[in-house]
Fold this protein.
Amino acid sequence: MRTENIRCLRALALACCVALVGAVSAQASPEALDTQLATAIQHAEFSMGADDHAAAQRHLGHVLNCIVGAEGEDFDAGWGHPCDGQGAGILNDAEAHPHHDDLAAVLNSLHGLAADGVQAESLGAVRAAAAGVRALLGVVADFGG
């Protein structure tokens, strides 16, 4: 009976270690958020400077995918995902940000404006949305991304 108890305790300890390692690795790092913000800002600027509607939409779609992450609402693999491998999406990784509650309205607006912008039917409207998204990304980055 004693050997059986020791085996159970070892199995329980191993399971706890595996769960702890998984929980630690799942936490968002500030570096992941910073990297995604930099990529999203770059693509927002590409969208702002695009000469045609399709290019402006595509780059704003890249930004939207960086914002929501591959598992997020409004993610569209057809746009491409330049933040792939950088984190779980700005919205997800910002949840661990020390100022998340202060940034909640900005993050919600960021998501909504990017989602609306990719649906805009004119080049000017997409570029204007991209400019607003760029500004909001800057606000998040200024809070220590």
Summary: Helices lie at 2-26, 30-48, 53-68, 90-94, 100-119, 123-142. The longest helix spans residues 2-26.
